Amino acid sequence: MRNLTLMTDLYELTMMNGYSALGCAEKTAVFDLFFRQQGQISYAVAAGLQQAIEYINELRFDDDDIEYLREAAGFGDEFLDSLRTFRFTGDIFAVPEGTLVFPNEPILVVRAPLSQAQLIEPALLNIINHQTLIATKASRVKKSAGKAVVSEFGLRRAQGPDAGIYGARASIIGGCGGTSNVLAGKMFDIPIKGTMAHSWIMSFPSELEAFRKFAEIYPDNTLLLVDTYDTLRSGVPNAIKVFDELKSRGKKPVGIRLDSGDLAYLSKKARKMLDEAGHRDAIIFASCDLDEYVISSLNEQGAAIDAYGVGTRLITSENMPSLGGVFKLAELTENGVRVPKIKISDTHEKITNPGFKTLYRVYDGDGKAFADLIALADEKFDPDAPLTLTHPTMRWKSTTLDRYAMRRLLVPVFEGGRQVYFTPTLSESAEYAEKEKETFWDEYTRNVNPEIYKVDLSDGLYELKTRLIAEHTAERTGGRL
Predict the structure, then answer these.
(1) Which of 28, 100, 190, 211 has the fewest CB atoms within 10 Å, counting from its CB?
(2) What is the distance between the alpha carbons of residues 243 and 255, in angstroms, rounded to a whole number?
(3) pLDDT tens by residue, 270-310
(4) What would the pLDDT profile of 240-281 be if each residue is shown by its tens digit?
């Protein structure tokens, strides 16, 4: 495992040094990690917790880290010496990977000494933001693809090795069935996919010879790239010849791949040609600058595509290149008293939810997700009594459920610095994510103009938030409205 302790922003260390000098570094702080509404996304698929756990477990300042900080940042001996025994000793709560989450909901909560919580902010945001973003993009792509298999093919366009490796991992949680990235396949036990590039075809005197040599070497995995020269007049006819030869030897061809041109038109023509030649089982695999919108368009045109390889626009989440997750202070223990904290802004969406909180998902009588409820962690709910859910700002809008079930989404991950969460395998997280989506009505997860899923505040949290806003307003205005 890599020690990423210095993967933080300088101002976090500057604040840690300041807290230490003021004697408040050990105050217990609560921070929430969440994202705000942006772009077209209506939901996100939480991912990255596995790497966040590994990061926390490896936190430590080595001697060379401390010498670097002495020279580059000019910190004094007292602070630097305190870093030699630094370990994370706090608590972390998080939603399991694959959980569908919505704007302003805590995805991860840290309760730890103030200095420790500050240090880990950038790394946690980096890990959770990136993998959640790619898992969400993959989920949207798979939503458009329907029953067609989607493979992640984006390594060469990812923003660096880590983005390619961990983006591939996140894509599996989002719904992809495999990756072209061999290292990611090895690291995370992901099925690896791939056939050939145009350079293979161009390396031989003819397209037909290139196909024959490939089939000779890989008779049980013959999927041929047919668009190097002329898809319908050369590629598909030559693929059919090789498929016929394979069948005569008792082998079953896999199919063809289209990587350019009008994919809807070419796939329909190729399907007709393959079927007429007796190769109805041969699949058509498509790539070429695909995303959820292109795939939806292909479906609308009746494209005959069985599987997709999605690269650049998936691994970079091209139309929304960042999730916009934030890490905000929600509570600070001062003189033994827990004091809720709130950030106030003229922009309503940027006013934070104060206090140490938890998150519930409420299901209706049919077992479908009805709403999420952000509540103070110590609030109690009677499962045998009706539950009233109220809009987070327009409190006159409410719904009472007589038949419902509640599930707490945030689970303990670290307690007192010790990992208490048993991390599932990647395939288990992917399976969990798929089951999660099935609990939502399609209108909440559709890619275009989705219905807004209800995320409500409990009465206790709403009253606390309203009181703190009023107190800060009175302090700022001297009691005048």
Answers:
(1) 28
(2) 9
(3) 999 999 999 999 999 999 999 999 999 999 999 999 999 99
(4) 999 999 999 999 999 999 999 999 999 999 999 999 999 999
Same domain as 391, residue 335: yes
The answer, as to whether pTM is greater than 0.90, is yes
Tell which residue, 386, 476, 433, has the closest CA to residue 43: 433
- Give the residue from 245, 207, 249 showing the smallest Cα distance to 224: 207
Q: Which residues contact 332 (CB under 8 A, 6 or more apart)?
A: 27, 28, 29, 30, 114, 338, 339, 341
Q: Residue 33 is inside which H or E element, if any?
A: strand 28-35
Sheet holding 455-457, edge to edge: 405-408, 357-363, 369-376, 455-457
CATH code, 242: 3.20.20.70
How many domains in the chain?
A: 2
Which spans in 373-441 are helix H?
426-438
Identify which of 161, 201, 207 has the alpha carbon closest to the alpha carbon of residue 184: 161
**Is residue 481 predicted with pLDDT exceeding 60?**
no
Is there a single domain that holds both residue 383 and residue 458? yes
Provide the residue type at 105 as one letter: E
- Spatial separation of the C-alpha atoms in residues 41 and 323, rounded to whole Å: 10
Residue for token pair 């999730």: 323
> Is 184 inside any structural domain?
no
Query: What does the pLDDT look like over 37-58, one tens digit per residue?
Result: 777 788 999 999 999 999 999 9
Regarding whether 326 and 271 lie in a shared domain, the answer is no
